[in-house]
Structures are given as C-alpha cells and as structure tokens.
Amino acid sequence: MSTKMEFQEVFDQLKAILIPYSTKLTLVMNTKGTLQLEGAYSEKWKRSLFFGSVQVKKNYVSFYLMPVYMYPGLLKGISPALKKRMQGKSCFNFKQPEPDLFAELTRLTKSGFDRFMAEEYS
User: Fold this and answer.
1) What angle is formed at CA 59 by the lines to CA 82 and CA 77, rounded to 5 degrees?
2) Strands of 61-65's sheet, edge to edge?
3) What is the mean pLDDT of the chain?
4) Domain that holds residue 115
5) What is the per-residue pLDDT across 67-97, written as a single tens digit (0 to 9) for each?
6) pLDDT by residue (tens digit) across 24-37?
7) How far apart are CA 37 and CA 15, in angstroms?
8) Which residue has the higher pLDDT, 6 or 106?
9) CATH, residue 93
10) Structure pTM?
C-alpha cells in the first residue's frame, strides 16, 4: 500500500509537470497537497478557465488537465497504460511514481497548453 511519503513524491513529480505553466497562467493555489492553475479571463466564456491541478487525495494523487476535456482529440494516440489511469474525462490518478507515464503526461500537458492558449486567447 502507498504511504503518505510516496504520495508526496508523486505529487512533487506531477507538480513539476504543471509548474512551468504558472508563468503564463494564474497560480490559484500552491500548497503542500494542491497546485491549481487557471487561464486568464476569457471573453469567449466570460470567466477565467480552469487549466489544471494536482491534488493529494486519500487513496491516490490526482492530475487534472482540462484541455483534454475541452479538446478530446488531444487524447488520440495516448498509451493504454495512461488511458487506464484516467477517471472521468480529464483526471489521471496515480499511487506511485511512474516515470514513463509522467513523461507522456508532460507531452500531453504541453500539447494541451498550446491548444488552450491558441483557442481560448487568440
């Protein structure tokens, strides 16, 4: 069974995927167990748009990536192993560090960010 220390390691590694985007997005929350990013105000949607988050939960660490919900085509070609980690349409859950899946999630996050910025703020 995973320990709190393992969850913190997972959180730190997933946070490292999102934190580079905090220079272009709004850092809404940055605590020991939660990181949340939003886009700027969108004229199209008349509000700030949620981009992504990492949260330590009771039984796993969740990585939320809203662009995959907004643009489902981003999920074409993801590995079956990453797909298996999905819960719902924009959440990926992990109990331990998974370097290969985190590398894939890093690429997916970059694609999602590029699309998010191009579509919502152009």
Assistant:
1) 10
2) 26-30, 34-42, 47-56, 61-65, 91-94, 86-87
3) 93
4) 4-120
5) 999 999 999 999 999 999 999 999 999 999 9
6) 999 999 999 999 99
7) 11
8) 106
9) 3.90.1150
10) 0.93
Joined together, the tokens standing for residue 87 give 């819960």
Report the 3 state secondary structure along the chain.
CCCHHHHHHHHHHHHHHHHHHHHCCEEEEECCCEEEEEEEEECCCCEEEEEEEEEECCCCEEEEECHHHHCHHHHCCCCHHHHHCEECCCEEEECCCCHHHHHHHHHHHHHHHHHHHHHHCC
| Residue of 117, 107, 71 whose CA lies nearest to 90 | 71
Number of domains in the chain: 1
Residue with tokens 């859950």: 93
